[in-house]
User: Fold these one by one.
Assistant:
Number 1:
Amino acid sequence: MKIAFIGLGAMGGAIAANLQMSGHQLLVHDVNRLACAALVARGAVWADSPARAVDDVELVFTCLPGPMEVEAVARESDGLLVGMRTGSTWFDLTTNSPDVMRRLNSAFGARSVYVLDAPISGGPQGARSRKLAIWVGGDNAAFRRYLPILRTIGDEPLYLGPIGSGCVAKLVHNCASFTVQNALAEAFTLGIKAGLDPVVLFKALRLGTTGRSRTFDRLAEHFLPGIYDPPSFALRLAHKDMSLVLALAESQNMAMPIAETAMKDMAEAMRRGWGNRDARIAMTLQTERAGVSLQVPCDRLRETAVNENYEASDNSITDI
């Protein structure tokens, strides 16, 4: 298949190379022409504008820094909107704004072009090894049509729903990632300041309950099904532990803003009389603030566990 690929940075270049190695003919464009040199040397065709890259292909990929660059590539006088032919399909791999992709979907839909947001996760190494999550929003039939090609660049393509859904999933993922990163830095530095060797502390943390779990797997234990009784670990005990954490931090003259925020929710949950329920019931305070409710049927969670080879912990959904 002839495929246009626009945006050949650390991620895009590796993804385009995998498409090329899978036998597809590439037309390529980047603001830095040198970024295309290796692909061109292996047979890709350089195009001097996005419009010229896409005018004779049925499938287009973009992998760009952000919303501003995507809109420019899409809407400028030599962009995708003027170049893509009727019935062709565009997958944007950028970490992007869902609102931007919805607006672009409307503009391109008027010209009978399919637009799908398909942000990726896995980093440059995942792009090279094809170990990428690809979260797709948009027309489901278009997703299914090109699923075999998506599987040549990533091992986990997943359809999430209407246009913008992929962007939302990627932003939620990155929000969790960067917030957890800060929380880990805060907690870890407390241990170091209190006298532990960093390598010994690292080893110890990996042996604990959280250390043995994948980051998101434990959401299925209590939070997603909305089941907090009987508790796996009671809120009153978690509240006591966090009180000890903050006392240790005070003795070390150390600020703990993330821990203090968590403690505020635990204290509110205690005031509501939830002390003997599972500690994760404090998470429901955020669902209240957001105006959403969660109570996912356990059979849906079990189905996900089976289909995705979820490695269950002792308190996992397989025991609910």
Number 2:
Amino acid sequence: MKIKPVHPFAARMAPEIAFEVLDGLRPKSLVLDPMSGSGTVLRTISELGFEGLGFDVDPLAVLMAKAWTSKMDPEAFLIQTKALIDTASQLTPDNILLPWIDDDQETSDFIRFWFGAEQIADLRKLSYVIHFQVADFTDLFRIALSRLIITKTSGASLAADVSHSRPHKVREVNDFDVFDGFRLACNKLARSIIPEKLFGKVQVDRGDARHLSRVKSNSIDSIITSPPYLNALDYMRGHKLSLVWLGYKIGELKTIRGSSVGAEKAPDNFDKILQAKQITRNINGLYTLPQRKINMIYRYALDMENIMRESSRVLKKNRNATFVVGNSSLQGVYIENTLITEQAAELCGLKLIHTREREIPPNKRYLPPPKDSTVSNFNARMRTEAVMTFKKI
């Protein structure tokens, strides 16, 4: 099954995983992806005619999933694109106020560091019109704007490797044409969304897999998701370059980043350290690490327990939850996130019934920025991911 993504996203789940898991599920079943990322699972759900719920803490991920699962009239969208560009191009600096940038020094400084003056001027125009004037296709226009920035090489920023969440400044000047790039991005969206393939209704929103308060208990027929794993990808490092044009301050994005699953922090609640030790008890070499790293792993274990507890609560009895899990390496110690996931699930009434290893294509093995020799060891191990299926008992 081939589906065209609407936006670059590092480590996107393979749609064939969702296709295999959903095979045999009753029509109109309600499927949940509580960490939806770019929306691959949700798009697959809709194309197969199921109902879907998706959540993510990353605002850009939510936008991607919404855009990818929204029905739209391509012709009307392109007409509105032309009108938007015409309106934006006629604006002057005096007409534009972006409060989250102009009233926030940290965000303003961030933009001046990562973007050239000419691109800043044009991005401000597009951002203003999209944020304050556009009524239709707003999410699609936001995604088109983000596509100018979240790129591998050439884009609206002064950085490279943004799409892999490894941005680094590679130039001081830029000749990128923002309006022309925006027009091309909108054309690509009109071709790739293919609304006639969307059969099932999908709802996507900001939300935390550890706290699914908006999902009723025993209401979900199947769960398919891929949780973050330790020391792998910091999505916000790249995403914040576009989110600052979509209404977010750097301080807000730091808060999201610091509270996300896999954050390199100690647990917020040390009263549960005994629980964390139980979940991580089978990790070889854990206690050879510095205490700061051990605390980070404890936090991850407690996050996974909360995810599994909420997954178990919302899942119907005897139904399955599938987690696609990758392992990690910290200072040369191999951290089997699969063991953490299995133990956390068992504590929450989810029994592992099947595991299979899936080879990750080399061009999809996105790694953290290299800091020392352990990254090459990590690369050697990160050739597969585990597709783990649990049943609620």
